[in-house]
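Dear V.,

Thank you for sending over the compound details. I've combined the ligand you provided, zinc ion, with the protein sequence from our construct and run the structure prediction for the complex. I'm sharing the raw inputs here so there's no ambiguity about protonation or stereochemistry in the SMILES, which I know was a concern on your side last time.
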Amino acid sequence: MVGTRPAVPVIDGHTDYLLSLTETRRSFLEESGIGHVDLPRARRGGIAAMLSAVFIPTEELPHHALIQTLRAVDLLKRVVAESNGQVELIRSYRQLVDCLDRGVFGAILHYEGAEAIDPEFTVLRLSYELGLRSLGLTWSRTNIFAEGVGPEDHGNGLTGLGRELVRQCNAMGILIDVSHLNDAGFWDVVAVSEKPFVASHSNARALCDHPRNLTDEQIRALAEKGGLMGINYCISFLVPGARTGVEVPLSVLVDHIDHIVRLVGVDHVALGSDFDGATMPAELADAAQTPKLIAELSRRGYSDDAIEKICFGNWLRVFREVWRE
Ligand SMILES: [Zn+2]
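Below is the predicted structure of the protein with zinc ion bound, written out as structure tokens.
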């Protein structure tokens, strides 16, 4: 027994702590006042597992995409090695459930953009061996597979290679993530993917009109596929035009959850904080504050069963359906 299982364990669907560790040279295993996440703060917040994003800064593209990716994976593996059994790199559904039971922190490897992947999918296959279990097709940028949201969105969907990448991921048991993908690409994933897919850190566009958020039509399509949305705590995706210094109450976050639940039910919404990658509401200043969000859900009338689905059950269902083991 290396940890205790929190009352409601949280699977956080998107965090950028690997980037923060690289930039600040702090340790994941020691409490720090820097950034939003480290193991002690995650534990205090009841966070049992995290999708751990590998992000490649734009200035490193295209030539350093692969080495930057390998450096981030190496960093994560060193965190695991130095953790004395407190952190495991998750390779299977069974291992994840086991970690939740034992109170071991589960790190799930995610690439936030496919820039390191080659057209022959050599890097994809080897990345699976390294532990890759979730892939965003792009990070708001154009690459050989897709177009992102924002200025580089010219309305083009997935390329032929992008469609093939989705099929490869389906076959290999790698989850597809459409956060940061443009609308045309989203609909191509709906058409091509035979497995549930996720928007790991996106909110409802009906409440906050931002291209990083999903329209009601998209939310319905994602739910029909059996997927989920991880609610993003970033203030810019919660309140239109919100910037640093703008006070965004937790109730707004629950408004987004309410909206999605009213549209498609409670089986298709989860959490995807964007810790260490975005500006948080003051009440969610770091990972240790996560229980405040759970308390707000309870205050708003969500049952224990619904709260468990939002906090971890929906993520578990999707992983069980998508991963090969
Ligand atoms: Zn992101």
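A first observation: Residues 112, 179-180, 201, 277 surround zinc ion (CB under 6 Å).

Warm regards,
I. M.
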